[in-house]
Amino acid sequence: MQLTKENIFELKKRSTEELALLVKGLNDVSSINYVLENLGHLPAGFNAGFLYILLNHSHPQVRLNAVKNIGKLNGNSDTKILYNLFQKETDTAVKREIVSSIGRQRIPQNKEMLFSFLEDTDPKIICQAIRGLMVFENDPEVEQYLRPLINHENEMVKSIIYKEYFSNNKSPKNNQPHRETYEYLKNVVVNADVLEALQLVPDDSVHLTFTSPPYYNARDYSIYPSYQAYLEFLENVFKETHRITKEGRFLIVNTSPIIIPRVSRSHSSKRYSIPFDLHPLLVKNGWEFIDDIVWLKPEASVKNRNGGFQQHRKPLGYKPNSVTEYLMVYRKSTEKLLDWNIHCYDDKTVNESKVSDGFETSNVWKIDPCFDKVHSAIFPVELCQRVIKYYSFKGDLIFDPFGGSGTVGRTAKSLNRLFFLTEKEPIYFEYMKSKQKVSLLEERMTKFLTISEFKESIK
Ligand SMILES: C[S@@+](CC[C@H](N)C(=O)[O-])C[C@H]1O[C@@H](n2cnc3c(N)ncnc32)[C@H](O)[C@@H]1O
């Protein structure tokens, strides 16, 4: 008989004995696996004898598929056999599948076995066992085993237990619906130090932050007494940003390692790995790491660093041209899934915000940098467009604490989002103002405010 999905399906319906004979007659692993992977739903009364025989097969993938199918027997599988196999099994994937299969039986007689798996050293096995035990809702014995795992050393185990037993499902401190925000933040630019301005911004009020912080002391617009002081400043900014971000929403920070040139020929230049040093400070303050996106620039657009090496070719003196920057993506830690965030919007908004074909599919974004006569480090519009389209809905409030020339604001507006920016330097604030296109038809004109005007606007 030819091995096709249709034939396997027919045989399963007609006679389990014939199916067992077919499998017995197969001597290559891939054909056995093909049958096992295409068995689908197993009807009541399915004679699973041949599956138990396959538990002794020498190939782990066959054992795994056999265990998976035994798990489909809806409370009728012989979990003792699975448990015994677990004791001698050496393949971790098969072991995990055994725990999952026992858990899927959902019968109280299996609780003891599942309790014993909680002692395992593999966190995935423990998590599978927890899943299996959680079906026994409000069972004091189960709770007695699971609650203490809040002190488990593994973060995944801890997080499941926290969500189940310890979280009080805190809702945002303000009572605004998730998609709403305050009028006085909509399309506003404040000329102030970001930390001063943020003192006036309430908790849970922005949907997305996209920003490129100052590059330590590499450019002239910001000077910090030390790298440590610079990192502490950024930590405070992103701590505050966390406070004003709505539950489960995103922060995308664009940085790159920088180089501070040497003071003389007898010194070396110093490189600072900003993205890597900032990362632990963000995670420590409640930002969950989601993705790293690499912004790739054409080599001709960056400073050439390999001139010397080109000449001497001596090892250790190799200096690659830096053609990348990072877009580090974080989410405000929450127990809620992304679906919860999406369901906060009506269907019309979700449909209108859908990202059209041609979106970037990889984490390497090839985009030309942008040069500007007034500001030395502005975002390319294309970069802003992608971030805003991929990480926000229409009508959302987008925040940029380091507004610069205002690229985030203008792009947000063009994509029917709202924005709130802060920028410390009057020269860039004025530049932003000068770039504003005045249109009488515009519903919501951008407001450029000093810190005291901003304070006034809140009253
Ligand atoms: C890398 S630039 C951002 C450029 C911006 N992404 C754009 O597209 O034009 C950083 C900006 O942060 C501003 N800045 C530095 N320290 C600040 C602070 N404490 N508060 C607010 N803005 C600050 C700088 O003046 C500079 O314009």
CATH-level-2 architecture of the largest domain: 3-Layer(aba) Sandwich
Mean pLDDT: 92
Q: Can you count the helices?
A: 21
Number of separate structural domains: 2
Residue ranges: pLDDT <50 for 5 or more in a row? none
C-alpha end-to-end distance: 80 Å
Number of strands: 11
- The neighbouring-strand order within the major sheet is 8-6-7-3-2-9-10-1-11
Per DSSP, what share of the residues sits in E-state strands of 2 or more residues? Answer: 5-15%
CATH homologous superfamily designation of the largest domain: Vaccinia Virus protein VP39
What top-tier CATH class of the largest domain fits best? Alpha Beta
Bound molecules: S-adenosylmethionine
Largest sheet, in brief, is:
9 strands, mixed
Q: CATH fold name of the largest domain, please?
A: Rossmann fold
Give the helix level as a range of percent.
40-55%
Main structural class: alpha/beta
